[in-house]
Amino acid sequence: MSVSRFLLTVLVVGIVCTAAAPRALAARELAGEEEVAAAAVMASRHEKWMAEHGRTYKDEAEKARRLEIFRANAEFIDSFNAVGKHSHRLATNRFADLTDEEFRAARTGFRPRPAPAAAGSGGGRRFRYENFSLADAAQSVDWRAMGAVTGVKDQGECGCCWAFSAVAAVEGLNKIRTGRLVSLSEQELVDCDVNGEDQGCEGGLMDDAFQFIQRRGGLASESGYPYQGEDGSCRSSAASARAASIRGHEDVPRNNEAALAAAVANQPVSVAINGEDYAFRFYDSGVLGGECGTDLNHAITAVGYGTAADGSRYWLMKNSWGASWGEGGYVRIRRGVRGEGVCGLAKLPSYPV
Q1: How many whole angstroms separate alpha carbon 143 and alpha carbon 148?
Q2: pTM of model > 0.90
Q3: Residue 298 known to be catalytic
Q4: Known catalytic residue at 86
Q5: Which residue in the list 161, 201, 292, 343 is annotated as catalytic?
Q6: Which helix (H) or strand (E) holds 163?
Q7: Do 265 and 339 share a domain, yes or no?
Q8: What is the similarity comment for this entry (predicted)?
Q9: Residue 40 in domain
Q10: 234 is catalytic
Q11: Which one of the listed residues 46, 88, 249, 298 is annotated catalytic?
Q12: Which structural domain, as residue segments, surrounds residue 143?
């Protein structure tokens, strides 16, 4: 290449670079402005969320940390809802500024036994609904409509979902047997049922709660032994006033939704699920289906089943996170999934007798 051609090439490249530099700079500035605008929108969204849920923080550093957690959760929720192919929607509910660890400790609490021990739970009793024909059952069941379900409760920041699940099942059975719906005491289980797997706000399981209620001869009412949302000393005098009793409990055959349907057609049933999965934690409405882990860490109560307008079959489940969560405190979960069921709901169901 001649010197003149080389100099010409250098000159052209210089001109092109000089012309491109302002465009690149403008693009970077625009991207920066968009990031600032997006951050401002998210901060405003967080402020509105704080006002809605009455959330305050101790200082600006804590608020900034919570904003980042909120941002990550909100972006996941927005992305999920934007896809449009899911049968349910998520929401930035009151758990949106909690870390996974914080949420798990405060809002779940199911503690399954090691598999060998769990296999023998239920005292070796047969499944009493094994010969029940679903062909003779109603196409849909809603124990709320039959007056066998108390109002939605809130476990607060206490990992005692197991107590709420067991109590809801006993409340339903008591209504079916006696005709009286009585709100029963979760706090008695939290305070008094502490000599086995059940450890109050540190977790437990429904089968042990049923065994405790059976041994004690019953359970106090909510009004007689009200919920405090924290571990306390057993109040024997309050616990002595029995408002409902059971004779024992039985386990639904595992990973068998037909058997679960037979049980739910006859009474509310305690169910263990994966409650920390984002699909469940941030559930807002619709029929929850699709991807959801099956590691069991939370407990709810199956109070019915039915079919949605689009033909989706679902379980109707009562949760213990207050009426602002989900569909008025309830969740519909896809029914008829083989194996462990959505969120593991078919793995360890049980009910009082």
Answers
A1: 5
A2: no
A3: yes
A4: no
A5: 161
A6: helix 161-178
A7: yes
A8: Belongs to the peptidase C1 family.
A9: yes
A10: no
A11: 298
A12: 100-114+131-352
